User: Which sequence fits this backbone?
């Protein structure tokens, strides 16, 4: 077994264990394999091990992999900060965008989504606990932005995403994740297509699952540590 195969199996087991601990069905939780900075061969190894959903942070790097692999059975998620001048590449190549945090980006994605593709699945990014981050909106601004996005026909609002500030203590991770889950459950009531809470990375996955995450984004635990000097010089 290659190490990516082995790592994937371990991560899946960790998801199942975390789900079992809080009485959830592990099938409710999608594993997004975050392949940023990793070569196509690493993605191919993960595909061979049964992985289908991949997350990329850098637009051009992601598009290069999507086109090179040309595999329509895969699902590609854009999870990085998105500048307006890169929105077209996301609209034309990805299946999901997790980082919508302003109407301007949503409007561009809607206009640029090709007519022959299904609508782009989008998540609104919430800045739930990170004072230093410029990404994501405050929870107070959610209902307004959700209302506007729901009117855009080439987008489907599927839910919420957050990157909580690193926090060592489980109980504090859980408290932040529960705030996200509360907002997610409220949003679901207003928008029937909402079914996705993208929350949980390698270090806070257990708390995220206990709170109700439906999608965890895992990179290092699957592909190993990243070398930022080599890749993505062209965001
Ligand atoms: C890089 C990244 C991840 C994966 O992080 P790891 O610590 O490698 O598991 C998840 N989500 C986002 C938004 C990321 O940028």
Assistant:
């Amino acid at each position: 077994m290659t190490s990516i195969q082995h790592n994937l199996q371990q991560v899946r087991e960790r998801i199942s264990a975390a789900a079992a601990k809080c009485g959830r069905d592990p099938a409710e939780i999608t594993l997004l394999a975050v392949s940023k900075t990793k070569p196509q061969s690493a993605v191919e190894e993960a595909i061979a091990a049964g992985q289908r959903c991949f997350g990329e942070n850098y637009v051009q790097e992601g598009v290069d992999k999507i086109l090179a692999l040309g595999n329509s059975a895969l699902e590609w998620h854009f999870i990085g900060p998105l500048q307006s001048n890169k929105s077209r590449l996301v609209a034309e190549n990805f299946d999901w965008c997790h980082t919508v945090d302003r109407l301007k980006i949503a409007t561009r994605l809607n206009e640029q989504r090709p007519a022959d593709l299904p609508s782009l699945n989008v998540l609104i990014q919430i800045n739930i606990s990170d004072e230093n981050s410029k990404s994501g909106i405050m929870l107070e601004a959610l209902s307004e932005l959700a209302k506007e996005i729901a009117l855009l026909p080439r987008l489907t609002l599927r839910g919420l995403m957050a990157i909580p500030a690193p926090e060592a203590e489980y109980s504090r991770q859980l408290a932040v994740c529960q705030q996200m889950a509360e907002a997610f459950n409220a949003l679901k009531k207003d928008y029937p297509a909402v079914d996705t809470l993208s929350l949980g990375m390698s270090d806070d996955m257990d708390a995220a699952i206990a709170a109700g995450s439906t999608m965890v984004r895992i990179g290092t635990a699957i592909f190993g540590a990243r070398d930022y000097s080599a890749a993505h010089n062209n965001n």
